[in-house]
Amino acid sequence: MELVTGVETYLRSGLLPVYYIAVLLGAFIIWVKFEFKIVPLFIILLFCEGLVVYLSRNNVIFSYVYKVGFFVFAFIIFSYKLIRVKKTRHEKLFLVIFSIIGLVFLISFIINNSNFFTILSQYLKKYGIPLLFYFGLKAEYHKENNMNMYASLFTWLLGFQIILVFF
C-alpha cells in the first residue's frame, strides 16, 4: 500500500513532467553517445514508451500515430533485411503464423466494427515490430562490432532505467 500511495503522491505533485524531461534528456544523451545512428534511435524510442503513454493521456490519437509510425520506422530500417536474410524452416513458419494473425486482426476489425487505427496499431506494435526487429538483428549478428554496440546500448539504457527508478 505504501508504494501505491507514494506513486499517487508523486503523480499529484506535478513532478511527472520533470521526470519525462529527464527521460528525454537522458535518451538524447545516450543517442549522442551512439553517434546519432538510426538503429540505436529505434531501440531508445522502444525504451521510451512510457513517455508516449504520458503524452497520449489527453489525446489517444497520439498513441496510435506513435504505434503505427514506430512500425513504419522499423519497416524502413529493417524490411530489406527481412527480405535478404536467409530464413530457416521455423522462421518461414513464423512468417506464415504472422500473416494468419494479421488476418485474424482484420476479421476482428470487420466483425466488431472496431476503430481501424486501434486494431492496426495493436497488431503492428505487438507483432510487426518484433518481427522486423528480429530479422534486422539476425542480419547483423555475425558483425561483432555491431553486436558489441547493441550490448553497450542495452547496458546504457538499463543503467539509465535504474537511475530513473531512484529519480
Radius of gyration: 19 Å
Question: What is the overall number of helices?
Answer: 8
The chain-level mean pLDDT equals 85
Q: Strand share of the residues?
A: under 5%
| Ends apart, CA distance between termini | 20 Å
- Kindly give the count of domains: 1
Which series of helices and strands comes N to C? HHHHHHHH
Q: How many extended strands? A: 0
What are the segments in which pLDDT stays under 50 over at least 5 consecutive residues? Answer: none
Largest sheet: none
Helical residues, percent: over 70%
* Global outline: flat
Output the structural class: mainly alpha
How is this structure best described in words?
This protein is mostly helical and 167 residues long. It has one domain (2-166). The protein contains eight helices and no strands. The longest helix has 25 residues, at 60-84. The model has no long low-confidence stretch (mean pLDDT 85).
